[in-house]
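May I ask you to comment on the folded chain given beneath this request?
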Amino acid sequence: MIPFQLHDMETAPNPSRAIMADMQRNGGELPNLLRTLAESPVAIDAYRQLATLLSRASLTPIEQQVVYVTAAHANQCHYCTAPNPMLGDDAQADEVTAAIRHGQRLVDVRLQALRRFTAAMTEHRGWVPEADVESFLRAGFTRENLLEVITGIALVTLSSYANHVTATPLDHLSA
């Protein structure tokens, strides 16, 4: 594995420093993924912009988490599927992400439908059988939600692939 640096404000390329400073103002410590992505101003900015857009999605935060962890699990991302201290103390998020990590069915029927659809999208590389789309829509999701799932998968794919190549070390941040 080719080593990648975990950048800080002194080592990051100049264009990445402004992005890092902005992200620190909005969220405190930077996770190792972002410190690694800082090697490329384009990559860190793409991640930031996509994450910002997804924060305005019609999917709820827990639904977004289901998309994120399901796609990361399918991508076998060591970093994205590890327990995340930055998520704080959300019992439902902890329960849902643990179930996904361990291949267990989600108790919430709607979230399970979202998980199945996200897994199908990832597995089939977007060529999802029509029955899977219909099942997703019957669970109460919308066409808008469907496109947001795809957008979430795009963010996770950026993260997963970067983590695979760079072997991003897990964060040891306090919540």
The first helix runs from residue 14 to 27.
